[in-house]
Amino acid sequence: TISENKVLQDPNDQQQQSKSKLTIPEPMVTERTLQNVRNLCKDSSQLENPFELAEVMFHSGHLREASILYRQAIKRKTAKQADVSRDRAWILFQIGNCLRDEDRTEAGKMYKQLITEYPDSPWTDPAKAAVKLIDLYQKEKPQELIKNSELK
Questions:
Q1: How many CA atoms lie within 13 A of 10 on its CB side?
Q2: 3-state SS of 57-82?
Q3: pTM for the whole thing?
Q4: What's the CA gap between 14 and 12, in Å, rounded?
Q5: Which one, of 131, 85, 88, 89, lies nearest residue 108 by Cα?
Q6: Among candidates 133, 47, 120, which has minimal Cα distance to 89?
Q7: Measuring CA to CA, which of 54, 89, 108, 133 is 20 to 30 A from 125?
Q8: CA 121 to the chain's CA centroid
Q9: Which residue, among 103, 76, 108, has the nearest Cα to 93 in the 3D structure?
Q10: Which range, 8-22, 30-44, 79-93, 117-131, is most confident?
């Protein structure tokens, strides 16, 4: 039975669906903020929590700064601390994600470190997939194949 207060929705009603979707605005980082972050990256002792700032930088598309901040965050979390192993696994995964377009070799190292140190992590399988993709890109060089096919 359906209570009188509930309204049935037509699943094909796109107007109703768009109203029910939660949209989260992308974080906006101004040039001034970005410069401040870059300055902070040079001296990590000024940062209380580089991990949180790394997450903001990652989600705002500033991957170079995010990778630096993630590296600072991981230095503060030793591998032997059991309570932070999940955080370390995530950070290694994110460093790999930050680097996979600019420095595939280094990204692969981060993913492989995650796989080795945290084989039971929920991020291990995605890291394995990323390593396979990186290997494919480095061996097959699909960008070159695409460029060559466009020239013909």
A1: 4
A2: HHHCCCHHHHHHHHHHHHHCCCCCCH
A3: 0.69
A4: 6
A5: 131
A6: 120
A7: 54
A8: 16
A9: 108
A10: 117-131
